[in-house]
Known about the structure:
Number of helices: 4
Strand order of the largest sheet: 2-3-4-1-12-15-14-13
Number of domains: 1
Low-confidence stretches: none
Amino acid sequence: MLEIVKPQLDVGLVTTDPRVVEFWRDEVGLRLDHVLPIMRGHDQHRFDERGTVVKVNLRETSEGDARSGLEELLIARDGLAATRALADPDGNRICFVPTGEEGVTQIGVRIAVRSLARTLAYYRDVLGFEAESAARVRCGDSVLLFEERADAPTGGSAAQRGWLYLTVQVRDCDAEVARIESLGGRVVTAPRNMGRVARMAMVADPDGNLLEISQRASLVGALPTA
């Protein structure tokens, strides 16, 4: 089981359209915490949703239009009588849902997969998420909802647009990545420091959808120097 230090998953998307940033601020109504420069031509706009960071990565250029299997972000709202579906200028789907619907009490992420059984085994037995049904797992306050489809994307690690990755905050990035790899998980990016902010790595599920394993200094203290 992952030793998490924050009970909410974060979610990242990538776009070349500045209107997507405006959408999250004005239409969804999330608070922009800050903008993080990643590299020249790439800024990350970090919005807060009750502990979840929605990371809108705005790039000047894109290498393609491939998308991952991450298809929809569900946001729970107390007192909401019915669901409210939205889509940003890139077509990324967001849905406000009454608290508790489909097990969503904070955020949920709907993911298209080729095999429910294979996906559940990975998230339950390799990552250590809590299985709540044959098509739903939980990590802290956040849930993942799987939909089996023959046309589900299988190149998530090469996606260039839309919902791109999830992030889990852990106490020890290196230890978690080593454990995941020992259980048969695929490591896409080995642990590395991002300055003094965080140590991170990327792992992929059986369809290539990415999970960032992040050890953030503000949550756990000083980072390893290696």
